[in-house]
Amino acid sequence: MMAEKPNFTIWRLPEPARQYAIDRQSLHPDIIVTHKSKTLGYFHNLLQGLEDALFPEMISQHQINLKHFLDWGYEHELADRGICHSASITVLVAKYWRLLAPEEDPLVGIDRALVSADRCHDQLAMADLHKVKGNRLLIQQGLSVAQESYARAIDLYGAIRQDLLPTLEKAQIQSNLGMVRRSLA
C-alpha cells in the first residue's frame, strides 16, 4: 500500500502584508526569536514524521524557508526542552543536503549544527551529528579520517542518561552505537 502524498504548499504574503510584518518586527524584536524558534520546531516535527520517499519533494518545496531558519538556528537557537531543532533537522536532512544547499559542502552544515547543539547542550543531537559526519567522511575520505567523528559519537552516546529516554530512543541509540562500532572494527 502506497503512502498518500502530502500536499506541501508554499505561502507568500502580499507585499503590503510583508511590509506590515517587517514593521511590527522592528517594534518588537523578541517576536523574531519566538517566531523563528517555533518555526524550527514546526520543521522538526514535520520532518521527523516524514517517510524517506517524501523528503526530496518536501525539501525542494520548502528549501528557501528551511535553509533560512536553519541558518538562523545555527547562530541563535537556544534549546527548547533540551532539543536543538536546527541540529536535529540537520541530522534528518543530511542525506538530502544537496537539495537544501546545493552550493554548500554538507560537512559545513554539519559543523555549524554541531556548534548549535553544543550551545544548546543537546548531547543526542551532537552524537547523531558526529555519526552523520563520520558517515560522510567515510564516503569522501576514508575510515582513517572518519574514525575521530565515530569515536566522538561513541563517547556521546555512552554519556547520555538512557534511563531518562523513552524505550524507542534507547533502542535507536543502541542501534546507532552498534553501527558506529561496526564501522570502526
Protein model, in words:
The chain is mainly alpha-helical and 185 residues long. The chain contains nine helices and no strands. Helix 2 runs antiparallel to helix 3, helix 3 crosses helix 6 and helix 8 packs antiparallel against helix 9.
What's the quick description here?
Helices cover 74% and strands 0% of the residues. It is mostly helical and 185 residues long.
Distance between the termini: 39 Å
Shape: globular
In DSSP terms (H or I, runs of 4 or more residues), the helix count works out at 9
What is the average per-residue confidence, as pLDDT, rounded to a whole number? 82
Helical coverage, percent range: over 70%
Query: Major β-sheet, in short?
Result: none
| Percentage of residues in DSSP E strands | under 5%
Return the string of H and E elements: HHHHHHHHH
From the alpha carbons, calculate the radius of gyration and give it in angstroms: 18 Å
Core attributes:
single chain; 185 residues; mainly alpha; 9 helices
Topology:
Elements: H1 15-27, H2 30-48, H3 55-76, H4 85-93, H5 97-100, H6 106-120, H7 123-141, H8 143-159, H9 167-184
